[in-house]
Amino acid sequence: MKKNNKLLIKGMVCSRCFTVLSEELSQLGLDISSINLGEVILKENSTIPVYEQALNLVLQKNGFELIKDKNEQLVSQIKHAVELGINEQSESGEPVKFSKRISDELQRDYDSLSAIFSLAQGNTLEKYIIQKKIEEVKALLVYTDKSLTDIAHGLGYSSVAYLSRQLKKHTGFDFAYYKGIRQDKLAIMKKSEKRFH
């Protein structure tokens, strides 16, 4: 088992993944301290030895994969730091300097991390951060009633107009399209509520 009690796992995309992994790894006898996007931290007292082959089988069965390659591990940690930064920014409304955040989190020079990320992913880290922010914007437009001003401010955009251009450039759609999806979802929910009352 890893001495540092941290397993880096590829393929974790949602909260359901946390539940599945928690159940599966507990059945292997592993004592889990916490599960985050891309990583499982085991408790110090995880006493039952688990063979890597058994662990790999359980992970693969559920669409996950243990990350062993050093650069792949770094990329996974960078993605996790980006995710945390976007969540923090969205919740606090305070701008996050991603280069500093990622560098502090991984305790390495940002330029070297950015170079490793680009080589491994075939895309720049800056473009990845923009892509993840745009995904957050789409989710906020479809699943919340937040105003465009609040979303732009919360995610560190200088203006609603700038965010609007970014959204259109990266998705091909404007704000109205995503707000329309929200209205459709709400209308469907109202219809189904009426049916059951």
SSE arrangement:
Layout: E1 6-10, H1 15-27, E2 32-36, E3 39-42, H2 52-61, E4 65-66, H3 70-92, H4 98-106, H5 110-121, H6 125-143, H7 148-154, H8 160-171, H9 175-196
Antiparallel strand pairs: 1-3, 1-4, 2-3
Helix pairs in contact: 3-4, 3-5, 6-8, 6-9
Explain this structure to me?
By secondary structure, this protein is of the alpha+beta class. Helix content is 64%, strand content 8%. The chain contains nine helices and four strands; from the N terminus they run E-H-E-E-H-E-H-H-H-H-H-H-H. It has helices spanning 15-27, 52-61, 70-92, 98-106, 110-121, 125-143, 148-154, 160-171, 175-196, and strands spanning 6-10, 32-36, 39-42, 65-66. Strands 2-3-1-4 form a four-stranded antiparallel beta sheet, sandwiched between helices. The longest helix is centred in the middle third of the chain and has 23 residues, at 70-92.
